[in-house]
Every structure is written in structure tokens, then in C-alpha cells.
């Protein structure tokens, strides 16, 4: 149980980062451009986690075909969940078949991302405590802008402060659930199973980053040339953490 409790403590680090971002949104007025920048930075970090840490580690373990299949399955899973969400949200649109895009879409995307983070941390902790710590630390700078953008969007839409704070605190649930699943699902399993789960998680993260976070960032207002720099900056930030903390 000691290892499991350690994994849960590690998972609380990105959860705290997400909550801190939500608190920042409570005290500062934010523009749509600021929201877009925050979401671009978060997407950049998520893409870096996938491209720098998860996929190379999985492919190095092999068999490669299993890891690639798991990666594809993760993307398919994320698309299936998004499709189910579409069935609910199109009922709230102004026109037939129109998707009711708004703060709940961002909340869902961030929740899926946090659940995936938890799986990574739980699985990584089984593989190596150092890997679990690195993955937890790496998620903190990504979760701060995610929490900020989510709660700021709810604030702009006129939701009450009590509900906003409750939603910010509720983000701890998906990451702790993911950590629990990741830890116990691979405990005692061969390395191929452990890294296949990491590859599956990578597929979810890749899809959420591109289809949810980046899309929502573009819908915040007029495009800015600086937005792409924030995305690349997020990628570089995680690369720096991996390089110098690893």
C-alpha cells in the first residue's frame, strides 16, 4: 500500500496545480486572448508529454506493433467519448445538429486529460518511482493554465463563485481515479502491458490536445500570431523539465 499512497501523493501535485490555476482565474480578469494563450500553452505541454516521454518509452520497450496499436486505441477511445458528448451537447445548440460549445466542453476535456495524467502517474510509479515523479512534476505547468482557462471561462459565462470553486476542486477526482486505475491495473504485469497502457494514455492525450484544447483555444476570439509561440513554449517547457530534471 505504501507505493499506492505515494502514487496518490504524486497525483495531488498536478491536481493542486490545476486548482491553483482556477484560483488565479478568480482574482484576475482575463481576456479571451489570455484564455487562448493559456490553452495553447497547455496543449503544447500535453503534446510534449506524448512526443518526448510516453511514445519513445513505449516503443523502446516493445513490441512496437502492440504499442502503436495501443496508441491508436487510445485515440479511438477519446473520439468515442467525444462522440457521446456530442449527442448530449447538440441538444443544447441553437440550430439542429449544432454543438453547444462552451465551458462544459473545456471542463470535460480537462477532466479526460487529468484522468489520463493519473493513469500515467500510477503506471509510471509502478515502472519506476523516479518516472512517476517526473510525470507528476511535468504535469503541473500544464495543469495550471488548464485550470485557469476552465474556471475563467465559467466566470465569463456568469456561473457563481461557489460552483466555480467546487468545479475547480472536483478536478482532483479524475486524476486520483486515473492514478488508482493505472497503479492497480499494471501491478505485477509484464513491462509490455505497463507500457501499452502508457501508449493508450498517450493516444487519449494526443486526441484531447488537438481536438479539444486547441479547438477551444481557437474559439476564444480573434487569432493572434503569439498563440503559436505559446504552444511551442509549452512544448519547450516540458522538454526542459525532462532534460534537466531527468
Number of helices: 9
Low-confidence sequence ranges: 92-100
How do the SSEs run, as a string of H and E? HHHHHHHHH
Largest sheet: none
Count of beta strands: 0
Strand content: under 5%
- Using the CA coordinates, give the radius of gyration: 17 Å
Shape category: globular
Would you tell me the overall average pLDDT? Answer: 83
Measure the end-to-end span: 26 Å
Helix-strand makeup class:
mainly alpha
Give the % helix: over 70%
Structure description:
It is globular, with a radius of gyration of 17 Å. It is mainly α and 246 residues long. The longest helix has 30 residues, at 32-61. Helix content is 85%, strand content 0%.
Q: Summed up, what is this model?
A:
With 246 residues, the protein is mainly α. It has helices spanning 2-27, 32-61, 64-89, 103-127, 129-156, 161-170, 172-186, 191-218, 225-245. It has nine helices and no strands.
Properties at a glance:
mainly alpha, 85% helix, 0% strand, 246 residues
Write the topology of this structure.
Layout: H1 2-27, H2 32-61, H3 64-89, H4 103-127, H5 129-156, H6 161-170, H7 172-186, H8 191-218, H9 225-245
Helix pairs in contact: 1-4, 1-5, 1-6, 1-7, 2-3, 2-5, 2-8, 2-9, 3-8, 4-5, 4-7, 4-8, 5-6, 5-9
